[in-house]
Amino acid sequence: MRADRLDAKALDIGVLDDPFTSALRGPQSRFARTVGNIVTFEPDVSVFYGHPREMTDQDYADLAQLAGIGHTASLRDRRTPLPEDLFDVVAEIDLVQYRGDAVEPVADPELVPLGVADVPEMTALIELTEPGPFLPRTIEMGVYLGYRDPDSGRLLAMAGQRLQLPGWTEISAVCTHPDARGRGLARRLVAAVAQVIVDEGNTPFLHTTADNSARRLYEKLGFTLNSEVPLEILRVTGNNR
Ligand SMILES: CC(C)(COP(=O)(O)OP(=O)(O)OC[C@H]1O[C@@H](n2cnc3c(N)ncnc32)[C@H](O)[C@@H]1OP(=O)(O)O)[C@@H](O)C(=O)NCCC(=O)NCCS
User: Fold this and answer.
1) CA distance 228 to 145
2) Of 2, 135, 161, 188, which is the most buried if we count CB atoms within 10 A?
């Protein structure tokens, strides 16, 4: 079945090299805000920026304009020096990217779709477990599934779709309440979101940080490492000439 999937649709792995641009200039262009060569998501949707690897002075100025003074922006795999006095580097993250063309998707009727009304509860679980950014409109980026305690109805675990690229959909916001860990909930949720992605005709991929022990979970599910690149979080200082 996996081979069929790969044969039927020649996977374009190249779009994974610059996933933020691939999403923002492709299937998720409806969320895009653009200045020059720089593109980002509407502020309540997602934090990521698409940009050239070789940034010119104009590109840096456009990045600063798009983010705004005092706000943060990010650069993935930057290859040119930062201009002096325009940004402070506030964090540097090793971003690992996994591709899921070897993952076996599994539908799971016990998992429930989450919608806009669930966002406050989802946000509380995200704040408790810190899987990565989840903003008030992130849910518009794709399908989110959750596991609710059968007795109390409390949301105990979730996962969903974030970046949509041509042929590929990112799995994100994978988290389980500390009281419910080790019961296979994250495994079930990731496999079920993968099933939704495959049903849509796409292949799953995901990002995490190099030091996140959740990598074991993804590797056990069959995700394979595709790349490891630096992601810098910058604050626009606005001191530039
Ligand atoms: C990572 C996380 C989602 C795992 O949730 P979980 O529901 O406990 O995971 P599961 O019970 O489904 O684990 C499935 C498998 O992965 C393994 N696994 C899960 N988390 C792991 C971890 N942190 N380290 C090593 N192995 C792990 C489990 O041992 C299990 O293996 P098994 O099936 O052979 O027994 C949870 O620890 C969490 O919410 N962490 C904080 C948020 C986060 O970092 N999310 C990932 C963002 S990319």
Assistant:
1) 27
2) 161
